[in-house]
Amino acid sequence: MLPTENRLRRRQDFAAAVKRGRRAGRPLLVVHLQREAVPEAGSDRNSDSRPHVAEGLPPARAGFVVSKAVGPAVVRNAVKRRLRHLVGERLSRLPAGSLIVVRALPAAATAPYPDLAHDLDAALRRVLRSEPAGGAPTGTGR
């Protein structure tokens, strides 16, 4: 399970990552990443001294979108648990203050764990690249 400080919970945070962030699509999932989100005015998130908070920015936070197209509730929850575990292992690679939204596609319901990990790693590599996307397709193959 992700620590509370690393979870996206508010609709505005999800919307910010999806609308203003970079996107990378893979056959099993889509990753949206907004780097170094600006903390809200009056927010006191950084008042404590957490060692992983860099330069006054909050830690990277992740959220998950698993729609009914993926399957019934049992399947959706299983996919969400797998993705949460995979993202939790990779949070240290993300820039402090960034917001990441991982959207599962229907194929994720039957995908083996290593395939989910492969697609997540490939999508993260793509959104973390420093050069702009330039309108290139977001990857349809493996």
How would you characterize this protein structure?
This is Ribonuclease P protein component. This protein has helices at residues 11-20, 73-90, 113-128; strands at residues 22-25, 29-34, 61-66, 99-104. The longest helix is centred in the middle third of the chain and has 18 residues, at 73-90. It is of the alpha+beta class and 142 residues long. Helix 2 (73-90) packs across helix 3 (113-128). A four-stranded mixed sheet has the order 1-2-4-3, sandwiched between helices. The protein has a single domain (4-37, 59-128), classed as Ribosomal Protein S5, domain 2 (2-Layer Sandwich), CATH 3.30.230.10. Residues 41-53 have low confidence and may be disordered.
Report a brief summary of the structure.
With 142 residues, the protein is of the alpha+beta class.
Instruction: Kindly state the number of beta strands.
Output: 4
The radius of gyration over CA amounts to 15 Å
Low-confidence stretches: 41-53
Number of helices: 3
CATH class: Alpha Beta
User: Could you give the distance between the termini?
Assistant: 28 Å
Q: Report the helical percentage.
A: 25-40%
Q: Average the pLDDT over all residues and give the rounded result.
A: 83
Shape: globular
**Overall SS class:** alpha+beta
CATH topology descriptor: Ribosomal Protein S5, domain 2
